[in-house]
Amino acid sequence: MDQAKSEIIQAHPIGKHLDAFCTLFDSQHTLYTLSDEDLQNLTIDVILALQGLRASRLLPSSRNGKNLFDDLSRLNSAVNSDSFDLTYIKPLLTAILAIYNSITESTPPSRLVASSIQYELGAMYVGVPRFYEAFFGGVAELETASEAIFKKCTAGTSPLFQEGWTGWPGDANETSVLSWLADFSEKLVTLAEDHRSTSTRRPLAQPHKSIEGSTVERKLDVGFVNNSKAGKDTRCKWSQILIPGELKSNPSADIAPKAWLDIGRHAKEVLAAQDTRRFILGCTLCGSLMRFVSTILGFLWMNEEELGFDPTIKAADDQRFILIERNNRKERLIIDELIIRPRCIAGRATTCWKAHLEEDPRIPLVIKDSWQYIERDEEGDLLREATDKGVINMARYYHHETVRVYDMDDDIQSSVRKGIDITSAKNYQPERSMPSLKNSTGDSSDTSRKRPFSQTNAPLPPSKRSCSASLTKFSLHTLPNRVRRRVILRDHGKPIYQASSRAALLAALEGCIKGHESLQQAGFLHRDISINNLMINEEEETHSWPSFLIDLDLAIKVQRDSVSGARGMTGTRAFMAIGKLIGEQNSYMHDLESFFWVLFWIFIHYDGPHKSRVNDRFEKWHYVDTEELAGIKFGVVASENIFRKTATKFFTEYYAPLIPWVNRLRRTVFPNGEGWTKANPEIYSSMKEILREAQKDPEVVGV
What we know:
Layout: H1 3-11, H2 19-22, H3 36-51, H4 55-58, H5 68-80, H6 90-105, H7 116-121, H8 131-136, H9 142-154, H10 174-192, E1 202-210, E2 219-225, E3 241-248, H11 256-273, E4 283-286, H12 292-301, E5 314-316, E6 319-326, E7 329-340, E8 351-357, E9 360-373, H13 379-388, E10 397-402, E11 404-405, E12 408-409, H14 412-416, E13 433-435, E14 447-448, E15 471-473, E16 482-489, E17 494-495, H15 502-521, E18 524-525, E19 534-536, E20 547-549, E21 556-557, E22 571-572, H16 578-581, H17 588-605, H18 616-619, H19 626-637, H20 640-650, H21 659-669, H22 682-696, H23 698-701
Parallel strand pairs: 3-4, 14-22
Antiparallel strand pairs: 1-2, 2-3, 5-6, 6-7, 7-8, 8-9, 9-16, 10-16, 11-12, 13-15, 17-19, 18-21, 19-20
Helix pairs in contact: 3-5, 3-19, 9-12, 10-12, 15-22, 17-21, 20-21, 21-22
């Protein structure tokens, strides 16, 4: 091997890119037991993984091609043909396995990968000064009452407290402790009645009963519920849980892998079930010596705002509503129903409600709350400008504001955390690196993930999270901070994958492409064309667009017919254009390619308007390396033969009649099986024309 090739390989190692293939087999002999079809699919997976490596584009071709990537593309086409003799490929796969096994046997085990809840929670801190004062200090009469009640607990011939809490199980057995806690809490509630009523709130101890409302069975050791009759046999829902808690046998068990992560999982369930919850307080019970009386009373006496509920969403006469000031007059918006509430702890946590103006119920509105980085341009400003410029088929602006709580902007650092300084925590590490935040016109790496809100089993990843590729030192002045912004829209609908027919879906997609073209001509680049951002409204009498785009969270302003100047992977991973995955500058051409991938994804994962399915072959699109994903996608569209076979095999029966039309879109978006090299606004017209023709196809219409 010459020096140049060696340097390329050393600079761009394979790493773990073939792990998914190699770990499927316990020995090399397993390859020879596979059927021809399984071996063919396996080989294509390996080739696509190799194409995803940067080295494949840097190493020269062994023939007359452009590079090794070109050679692999030809091999992929050959393997996918019915005439290829698969026995020729087995020695190559055997060699890959042999090398892999020899390396992994001599490599020490890697560290455990962080669980999803660890990733979402991020850094966790203990010993934060002023924590108790910040969250319990505002509870009226708490300190005075706690001292008085504790004195009662130590008085009499049978005191509740005497060098420890009376009756506390010496072995800290879970069942015994929880039984003790339930009895003691009732006594504490009775003692507290002399000072202040606890109304309907009660402690709950049910370690062996699952809580209703989870996507998986989940149990809660201890907690506080909004149910005055709650007892050990009461079946509660996550929507009733006010404070989740965990029991650990002693204080040494109160560490991240045990107690904290469990609290995080419980908090995630509570936040998902309570659409007006801004934050969650939780507790761990670790041994009998704790700030017990004041903590329990605090949880019983806190008002809803102190528990993290949103005071801007009010209730009266069995209705929920918000108040806004618009055009120098106050308006009341009645909330009709929840549209979407993501199951997450951190991130934007976008929550949407369908609502209407109190004076005119005929006109529906959508209220959208999300936690945005302060540095980002406000979506409301972009929407207002787009609406003023007459952009069509884009959700229209009605109002926007920064939500205020207690006469301050509702942000994380000052409002939610109440100004506590986490850099003073006992386990704070000054040299910890955290993602830096840049203006939305700068370089960024905002890969995002969304789950369709109406499909709990839908094959999409969790809620969108954004991060930047660069790192800075973590200090008080650079701590990332989010603020809650509220946008109100004049259009409502449902995602296009819920369209009532194939023709309706195609018409909606055509309308969304028109909207994108109008948006681009007005000087905006959307940058997040994804399955939940393309909407359809099929109501006969409606004030909304029949189909339209939503979500300008990641949008930027650009000059017409130009790239944005901003590099980075901004969007939803499964639908991102190949060029964006390898770091090209953002362009409306990338968004047009994303329309293609949305259609491709729907036709694989939905067998009609309301029937979703998971396809394991495409689940890797959510987590593989971005360059590997670029290679996988290129392998799908580069060859018409491969694309047709892929579509025939994986499109659902419902969408199979659309294979010829999707292939025509592929030829338009990827001319000659390659990506675009020059921006071409004519592609808008070409894509719309194909979709219009497809709507007339008898096979598509079903006549």
